[in-house]
Structure to design on (661 residues):
């Protein structure tokens, strides 16, 4: 009998997948891991659908859903860590051609058993699982009535199931529009959840076991097979205790037989930093024995710290380094050149403010041991070229092997790649938007594309390890980028450089905080007024366009019959009342006047700034009231200037970016 029968009455869909996972552990471990993850996916979707305390994140994939802060708060650390284990084992089953061990399948099903217990205990209305209920691996069936599933079959099944599932983003787009049945169920479930708080949860969630499984999985993702006896519990001598002996939880070895890193595992409920001193003593012993000081990691399974105490203080990381990445860290202790003594390549950046910015960045990295920097530089002053000159210098001095340039639009990525190819061709620049499998030393990518590539695995290993990039450059760094794509910056353990044209006094306090800087004090700044005074840029010039509606507003009595019909057709309020007048500042809120838009466009096309000897309109941006207004302007342009419509050049393009200023 399945050990998930307590789910059957109230969570039938979750039960079905959990039971399939339970039945397949021994006969088909790959399928068992797949269905354990599927059961988790259904559980998480159920929680977001019925628990009002959860906030839908920017993405609604499974990883984003479990990392949403409200979800982590709801389920607690013990259950949250189990969800991460299940996802990793399920991903390996679907994406790694390597055989899936039976033990991995047992772990996946056991971990989901704990998640299922928490679900039923917290939300069960008609019945609760028995307080003493435990997972019994002896009850797992040794045979199955169905043949094994191949990895191709599981990938196809995964696609079919996702297409069938209702999108949370669509379902929860408007919580006020939920149907009455869903509202009733939410109320019932909220009551059951409240009642469950009066019944203490005495279930043993086996957190130490989860920690060990998760650390093993993270190490395997980084390419550490952990198949030698000295990889775990390695004995060292010289410890300051009565016996002088100690046992290192994990030692990660180089090909030369020397230790590259150690991992000290602490209890899940403890701050892993309590293991810092013990890990240092282990590193001391290994350095004495092998003549090489290892990099230090300490972890409690969900929080990990890296300490290379020859260069930096400890810092939090999201995972473990691959062997080649650790070898590079150790090697740089002796081969890194001084940035203060290095020259800046004048063919890339030669203006005084560009070289000043590079010097201040390198001083922050080398002297102050900072790992983040923020540069404010006016648009047109050469932010990208400054960044390229910095990358060239850091590569030449062996501080950076691979760099990543991130932007929010494909056009900016293409532009950056072209400039990198021109000034740094030896770095083999790669556009990850179009060349996802190409290798190089400089990569450029949009934020959404990189969000997907972070989880990309090859033969069970992540393509991009936590230490893959030594430097990440953020184009137009501001708070909204970090809010949406914080996962990228949390995952990669790299130096971080932010570029922005926003005046330093208008950058919000949170952005400065993200770069560990004092409010209003970027690493370096070269603003528009400086560039104008130096003669590198010209000041903006305002051109007034005489438009009656925008200046005086609209009176109903002054409209033509056709305009009055359009006015009357608008939905002004819920009762259908129409005003007699609209003030100037509210015109575009209610009425997108064709004549007004056409006049502005005509003024732009005839009197706008021309380039190429006066033959072509220069780059121009039109700010609209809202997205509907922007779409309306685009439609009017295409109607008025059809000879510019379409084609490779895309003369007029409607964007969707909001402006904070």
């Amino acid at each position: 009998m399945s050990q998930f029968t307590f789910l059957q009455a109230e969570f039938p869909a979750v039960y079905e997948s959990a039971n399939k996972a339970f039945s397949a552990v021994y006969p088909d471990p790959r399928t068992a891991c797949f269905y354990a993850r599927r059961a988790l996916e259904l559980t998480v979707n159920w929680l977001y659908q019925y628990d009002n305390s959860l906030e839908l994140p920017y993405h609604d994939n499974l990883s984003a859903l479990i990392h949403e802060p409200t979800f982590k708060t709801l389920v607690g650390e013990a259950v949250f860590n189990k969800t991460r284990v299940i996802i990793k084992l399920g991903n390996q089953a679907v994406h790694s051609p390597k055989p899936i061990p039976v033990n991995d399948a047992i772990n996946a099903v056991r971990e989901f058993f704990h998640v299922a217990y928490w679900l039923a205990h917290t939300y069960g209305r008609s019945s609760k699982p028995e307080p003493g209920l435990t997972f019994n691996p002896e009850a797992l069936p040794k045979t199955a009535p169905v043949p094994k599933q191949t990895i191709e079959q599981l990938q196809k099944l995964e696609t079919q199931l996702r297409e069938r599932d209702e999108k949370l983003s669509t379902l929860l787009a408007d919580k006020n529009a939920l149907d009455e049945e869903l509202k009733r169920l939410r109320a019932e479930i909220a009551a059951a959840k409240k009642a469950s708080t009066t019944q203490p949860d005495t279930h043993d969630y086996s957190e130490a076991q989860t920690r060990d499984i998760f650390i093993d999985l993270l190490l395997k993702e980084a390419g550490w097979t952990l198949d030698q006896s000295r990889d775990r519990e390695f004995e060292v001598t010289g410890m300051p205790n009565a016996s002088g002996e100690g046992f290192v939880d994990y030692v990660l070895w180089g090909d030369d037989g020397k230790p590259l890193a150690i991992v000290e595992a602490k209890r899940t409920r403890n701050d892993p930093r309590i293991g810092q001193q013990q890990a240092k003593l282990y590193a001391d012993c290994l350095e004495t024995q092998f003549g090489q000081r290892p990099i230090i990691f300490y972890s409690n399974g969900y929080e990990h710290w890296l300490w290379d105490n020859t260069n930096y203080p400890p810092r939090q990381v999201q995972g473990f380094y691959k062997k080649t990445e650790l070898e590079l860290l150790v090697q740089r202790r002796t081969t890194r050149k001084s940035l203060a003594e290095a020259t800046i390549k004048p063919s890339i950046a030669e203006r005084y403010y560009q070289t000043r910015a590079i010097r201040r960045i390198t001083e922050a990295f080398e002297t102050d041991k900072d790992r983040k920097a923020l540069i404010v530089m006016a648009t047109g002053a050469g932010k990208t070229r400054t960044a390229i000159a910095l990358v060239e210098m850091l590569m030449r001095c062996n501080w950076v092997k691979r760099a990543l340039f991130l932007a929010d639009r494909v056009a900016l990525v293409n532009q950056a790649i072209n400039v990198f190819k021109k000034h740094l061709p030896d770095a083999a620049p790669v556009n990850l938007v179009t060349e996802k499998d190409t290798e190089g030393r400089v990569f450029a990518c949009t934020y959404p594309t990189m969000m997907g590539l972070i989880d990309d695995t090859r033969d069970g290993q992540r393509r991009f390890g936590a230490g893959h990039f030594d430097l990440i450059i953020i184009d137009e760094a501001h708070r909204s980028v970090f809010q949406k794509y914080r996962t990228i910056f949390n995952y990669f353990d790299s130096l971080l450089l932010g570029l922005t044209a926003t005046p330093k006094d208008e950058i919000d306090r949170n952005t400065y905080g993200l770069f560990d800087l004092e409010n209003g004090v970027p690493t370096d700044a070269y603003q528009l007024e400086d560039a104008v005074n130096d003669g590198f840029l010209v000041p903006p010039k305002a051109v007034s366009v005489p438009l009656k509606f925008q200046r005086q507003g609209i009176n109903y009595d002054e409209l033509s019959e056709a305009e009055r019909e359009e006015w009357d057709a608008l939905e002004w309020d819920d009762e259908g009342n129409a005003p007699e007048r609209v003030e100037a500042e509210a015109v575009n809120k209610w009425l997108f006047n064709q004549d007004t838009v056409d006049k502005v466009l005509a003024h732009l096309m005839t009197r706008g700034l021309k380039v190429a000897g006066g033959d072509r309109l220069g780059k121009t941006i039109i700010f609209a009231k809202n997205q509907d207004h922007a779409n309306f302007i685009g439609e009017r342009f295409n109607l008025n200037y059809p000879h510019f419509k379409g084609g490779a050049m895309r003369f007029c393009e409607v964007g969707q970016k909001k402006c904070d200023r």
Summary: The mean pLDDT is 86.
